[in-house]
Each structure stands twice: as C-alpha cells, then as structure tokens.
Specification:
binds zinc ion, 152 residues, globular
C-alpha cells in the first residue's frame, strides 16, 4: 500500500463545518470529493441528533468540549477509535489521521498545519501568526530549514 499523505487526503474540518453551519441540527452539507480521493462524487453529511451522519459511511459523534467557561468547541469523535479529532480524513474509510496512518509530507508540514489551524481560531495576534506562516512557507519552498541559502 503506498504511503498516504495528510496534505493530499480529503478531509472534513470541524471548524469549517461549524462555520458553514453544518453542525446545526438537521443541517445537510454536501462535499465535493476530488477525483482519485478514493471516495468519488459527493458526500452528504447530515447533522442528526447531535451526530454527523455520513451518507454511505459511519455515524460520527460530535463532542462539545468546554475549553473556556461558557465557550464550547466541537470535536469529531473518530468512528474507529473515538478519539476527539478536528479533522476526519476520507480515504477508503473515514477516520482520524492516526487510524488511517497518514503521514505528513514534510516534517514541518505538521507545524505549518497546526499554525494554520491556530490562525483560523485566533482572536489576537492574527497578523503575527500569519507572518510566521509566510516565513515557514518560504522556508519550505526554498527547501531550507531556517538556514538561508540565497545570497545577499
Ligand atoms: Zn481514529
């Protein structure tokens, strides 16, 4: 089995779904699945009784965790291991990154991804986070790890 990569695997992100209104009771969201992603065509997600029902797939519990007083954040409960996860990956089955043994393409892809997530939920320091992400991206493009290889 070829190694599967996080960055090229279709996923459902809990924040994106929340902001799109997909976590409201009775909400129905349709996701377009890219060609070659294993599951093809459209995927319909319906929020039913607090769970996310994936058409042709598992029923995913949504966990609401109070992380600050009066402030809740959602997690998907992985249909395989029930671990709370922010992303569900859509391969031949639907599960979290660990269950599907997905790897990051580059070691700092992990860091970059976490930072992009931080930016999504940030209320403060957005500009600082965005600047840091740009720097990391540049380093990735250059293939350096913080060391400058360009002249000047
Ligand atoms: Zn899992």
């Amino acid at each position: 089995m070829p190694e599967r990569i996080v960055e090229s695997t279709k996923r459902v992100n809990v924040w994106q779904l929340l902001h799109a209104g997909g976590l409201a009771e009775g909400a129905c969201t349709t996701l377009q699945i890219d060609h070659g992603a294993g599951l093809e065509g459209c995927l319909r997600l319906t929020c039913e009784g607090g769970d996310l029902v994936i058409e042709g797939g598992p029923r995913v519990a949504v966990i609401w965790q109070e992380w600050l007083p009066g402030c809740c954040r959602p997690w998907f409960s992985c249909p395989k291991c029930t671990r709370p996860c922010g992303d569900l990956f859509l391969c031949d089955e639907i599960a979290c990154r660990l269950c599907l043994k997905l790897k990051y393409r580059r070691p700092y892809g992990d860091r970059l991804y976490r930072m992009r997530r931080r930016l999504l939920v940030a209320r403060h320091n957005r500009r600082a986070i965005a600047a840091e992400i740009r720097l990391l991206e540049l380093q990735m493009i250059r293939g350096t790890d913080g060391k400058r290889t360009d002249r000047g």
